[in-house]
Amino acid sequence: MKINKAFALKLSKIMYEKGISKYKLEKKTGLSHATFRNIFNEVNSDIMFSTIINILSALGIELKDFFDDELFDYKNLDY
User: Fold this and answer.
1) CA within 20 to 30 Å of 67's CA: 8, 12, 32, 73, which one?
2) Are the beta carbons of 5 and 42 closer than 8 angstroms?
């Protein structure tokens, strides 16, 4: 699995669990609709680290907690 797909899957799961919509997260982060569209449609092969920090901060999630998932195990990723 590509890293950007793993990120989008994990982000979708957390948004569902927290009951937060893409629109609400866009407003909370100040990131554009196009940025989120690119993340969820896996348009870009890489996501800027500052974007990841911004999103996780808005969700109140630490980096270590977000990436502590088998989705991000090296054996599961194409990089």
Assistant:
1) 32
2) yes
**Tens-level pLDDT at each residue, the chain (79 residues):** 888 899 999 999 999 999 999 999 999 999 999 999 999 998 887 889 999 999 999 999 999 999 999 988 888 788 7
Tokens of 71: 């989705």
H-type helices in 1-79, by residue range?
3-18, 22-29, 33-40, 49-59, 63-67
Q: Do 31 and 37 meet the contact criterion of CB atoms below 8 Å apart?
A: no
Question: CA 46 to CA 56: how far, in whole Å?
Answer: 16
- Dig out the tokens for 64 from the structure: 């270590």
pTM over 0.90: no
